[in-house]
Amino acid sequence: MQLEPGVLENRLVRLEPLADRHREGLRAACDADPELWERLYSFAMHGAHFEAGWAWLTGEVAAGRAIAFAVMTEGRCRGMTSFLAIEAPHAKAEIGATYYEPSARGGPVNPAAKRLLLDHAFAAGARRIYLHVDALNARSRAAVLKLGAVQEGMLRHDRVVWTGRIRDTVVFSVLAGEWPKVRAGLDARLAGY
């Protein structure tokens, strides 16, 4: 697997490798829903927490463990998404660190962004792409299933989140052999937008 950063784009969304020019737009997007960060994220990027979250994510990119993207629509940063825990020898990676401002939720942004990420990963030789979702995050769990991913199970007491809560994590995946069917489903869904 040779997963490389680059601009990924379709008619609905543009994913740009996260750079300093996205910092203030992402800060504004993250500040649009502070309650969500408090309830459902394992790290924080709102308010006073933004700089530490930015440093963590860009540090993962610099170390080669992640590829982070600014999610752009209509020329504005609406959030972020990333490949995390990239394991090239095992041809797998996680899609995570995804956040969208409220105005970008519930429409084409998430399925369009995931379509780009999955296509990029499988074209680069991935055999497994997985997603970890907080068990309390019913909206994200439903969205991942709607993408066509398979729910594999739950990691009980998987991690301690930034607020100190012990999180259970639901694991989903898409395998290379499943990608054609998942892609067709996403394409049909996105054609409606």
Main beta-sheet strand count, sense and barrel state:
8 strands, mixed
Give me the count of strands.
8
The CATH superfamily is known as Gcn5-related N-acetyltransferase (GNAT)
Order of helices and strands: EEHHHEEEHEHEEH
* Average pLDDT over all residues: 96
Strand order of the largest sheet: 1-2-3-4-5-6-8-7
The number of distinct structural domains comes to 1
Structural class: alpha+beta
- How much of the polypeptide forms β-strand, as a percent range? 25-35%
Task: Give an overview in words.
This protein has about 190 residues and is an alpha+beta fold. The protein has helices at about 25-30, 35-40, 50-60, 110-125, 140-145, 180-190, and strands at about 10, 15, 65-75, 75-85, 90-100, 130-135, 150-160, 165-175. It has one domain (about 10-190): Gcn5-related N-acetyltransferase (GNAT) (Aminopeptidase, 3-Layer(aba) Sandwich). It contains six helices and eight strands, in the order E-E-H-H-H-E-E-E-H-E-H-E-E-H. A hairpin with a 2-residue loop joins strand 3 and strand 4. The chain is globular and about 40 Å long. It starts with 7 loop residues before the first strand and ends with a helix. The model has no long low-confidence stretch (mean pLDDT about 95).
